[in-house]
Design a protein that fits this description.
binds flavin-adenine dinucleotide; single chain; alpha/beta; five-stranded parallel sheet; 28% helix; four-stranded parallel sheet; 362 residues
């Protein structure tokens, strides 16, 4: 290779921007280009707030990156020509790279259960949320995971009088400590959310979700929050991926099949504490983005990068705007003893969400 090293970052979410921000400091001799299909950075972790009618902060990517030694290209990546080391874009000329950081995030998985794609809404992207109508009848939120809990609480708080049901096989927050689970249940019930645990949804019809026991939960709007999948670009472009299409990486976050490509955030499989893959989270997207950038720069300078090391610290859930749960966790994400609840937890969660956006902004 001759001339400037060209680093292309695909995706301007938490992982891609964390990578770009790092590169802007550590690779000033390189040409850094960030590509995103959107013109604005969206705080994805607040999409449940937007879904319940609040306006969430967004910022213009071109403005934020201007003067920061980062070029921004607003286009959708449609193919990675790994042999020619080029990214093909829908609305701009193809971009050549010497190193590529793949950080395209995730989207809602609406294919695994019949009827979801046709009759349910989701909150995984800004487009999903913007398609949500204002509720004019019962809302069924399917999935008692973090997104489902946060959405149900937010909807119930901001639409008093609207019947909100939270459905799923498990108890809301089943992966947290008993104390955290009890607080989540109490708060959801105080907000008026009807919790239906042990309710496995096998289909979504125009009338609402149908359960494994054959019963129908009538709803004016069904929101599917269980399951995320990743864009198929990596798989289509021939990168080694797991069965879900996420890029397989080594300990330095480099693709195991393509040495010029690194992956970070939701779109990557990254080994975490205890050998378990990191979960999809803003909390993992930021450090993996930074580490991928460091690995690119190390190799660019002829050094062997350090291995990625990570430990979980907290899990935070908002329960409306005035309540929440902050669960301390062990290195491997298993719940520890400390749990904060109520307004203090809501305050901590809000601070963490703000600082996540702040750490992504170059
Ligand atoms: C409602 C909700 C609440 C959440 N709450 C939390 C929370 O409290 N804590 C937490 O840790 N995590 C939370 N998450 C998860 C968190 O948002 C994700 O794990 C995180 O956004 C992943 O970051 P990322 O950079 O990998 O991907 P993303 O943030 O999804 O960014 C991917 C970027 O790639 C772009 N892109 C995608 N495809 C293309 C393409 N082909 N061409 C060009 N650009 C493309 C997208 O426009 C996007 O900007 C929440 C998620 C949701 C939906």
């Amino acid at each position: 290779m001759t001339g400037q090293h060209r680093i292309v970052v695909l995706g301007a979410g938490y992982a891609g921007l964390a990578a770009a921000r790092r590169l802007a400091r550590t690779a000033r001799d390189a040409r850094i280009t960030v590509v995103d299909a959107h013109t604005s950075f969206v705080e994805r972790v607040r999409l449940h707030q937007q879904a319940s009618g609040q306006r969430i902060p967004t910022w213009d990517l071109r403005e934020a990156l201007e003067g920061k030694h980062i070029d921004f290209v607003n286009a959708r990546a449609t193919d990675i020509d790994t042999a020619g080391k080029r990214v093909v874009l829908d609305a701009a000329p193809a971009l050549e790279y010497d190193s590529l950081i793949y950080a395209l995030g995730s989207i809602a998985d609406v294919e695994s259960v019949p009827g979801v794609a046709e009759h349910a809404y989701s909150v995984a992207t800004l487009e999903d949320v913007n398609a949500l109508p204002t509720p004019d009848g019962p809302v069924a939120v399917v999935g008692p995971g973090a997104t489902g809990i946060e959405l149900a609480a937010e909807l119930a708080e901001s639409h008093p009088g609207t019947r909100v049901l939270l459905l799923g096989s498990d108890e809301p927050g089943a992966w947290l400590s008993a104390r955290a689970q009890a607080h989540i249940r109490r708060t959801l019930e105080r907000l008026g959310v009807e919790i239906r645990s042990g309710a496995k949804v096998i289909e979504v019809s125009p009338e609402g979700p149908r359960l494994a026991d054959g019963s129908l939960v009538e709803s004016a709007m069904t929101v599917w929050t269980t399951g995320f999948r990743v864009p198929d670009l990596a798989a289509r472009s021939g990168l080694a991926v797991d069965p879900d299409g996420r890029v397989l990486t080594d300990a330095t976050l480099r693709s195991v099949s393509h040495p010029d490509i690194y992956a970070a955030g939701d779109a990557a499989v990254v080994a975490g504490p205890g050998g378990r893959d990191l979960r999809m989270a803003c909390a993992t997207a930021l450090p993996t983005g930074k580490h991928a950038a460091d690995a690119v720069v190390a190799r660019m300078r002829g050094r062997e990068p350090e291995e990625f090391r990570f430990r979980y610290v907290l899990q935070c859930l908002s329960l409306g705007r005035r309540d929440g749960v902050v669960q301390a966790v062990q290195a491997d994400d298993a719940p520890a003893r400390m749990v904060l609840t109520g307004r203090t937890a809501a305050w901590v969660k809000e601070r963490i969400v703000r600082s996540a956006a702040w750490s992504a902004r170059p």
